Amino acid sequence: MRIGFIGAGKVGFTFGKYITTKMVVSKPEHIQLEVSGYYSAHSESAADAAEFTETVMYNSLEELCSNSEVIFLTVPDGQIGEVWRRLKDLDIRGKIICHASGAMTSDIFSGITEAGAFGYSIHPMYAISSKYESYKEVDNSFFTVEGDDRYADRICSVIETLGNRCVKISGKDKVKYHSAAVFASNLVTGLLATSQELLRQCGFSEEEAQMAIMPLFLGNAENAAAKGPADSLTGPVERCDIGTVKKHMAVLSGDELQAYTAVSRCLVPVAQKKHPDRDYEDLIQILDGIGELKL
After folding, report:
1. Residue 117's CB: how many other CB atoms inside 10 A?
2. N or C: which end of the chain has fewer CB within 10 A?
């Protein structure tokens, strides 16, 4: 199975290098994958990606298509539709067409059935941040596949043969799935930034705030990853410490207060799971703005 990439950014570099490295190092018996090469509107980027993966730079979409069974659109989300409109004018009968968007579905490939091809969205639950380094970290990433039933199971099987877990999801659930990933990554970063800002308001320098928070942040993340949310939960919500929660809410305002109450409210069901015999109703009312906040 020969895979060609349209687009030579972080995702294209990472997927191509991950596949070529796996095929050389792991040598899986049940699949034969080969990266045919790269095409990009920016030929320098395609040349760099081809050199990095020891593959080929193509000068046209036609050339890439004729040499690839799987065509992966690793371009920004806003460009997927435009590239697809160019692609479907070519002979793509029998080809597997994929994109790597977390939020978009295979529906972006309008008219793909009429073109005789098969469309999929394939997304890793991993923040790809580096063209040249991220491929080293993809080993532990969970993948999702959404699209035509014809090859969905086969694609999942190939991903699992590479050593990754994979789940098929429905197109109607794709945006909810992507929001789950955002909760675990981007929104956590926002909470971390808020924490550091509160420390700076207490007199910490930016460097001190960063150093102070990191052991707490990383320790909690490791516990949550190892034990799950309920068993790793600590703090005033877990203890149903209404007095401390009130004190926190009294010194916060604006976005900080909204974030505190919203996330604390999300923690209540986690705390209830950990302590099913504990009554959290008064705390719920405080967080919902119904109870008396007076200290």
Report:
1. 21
2. C
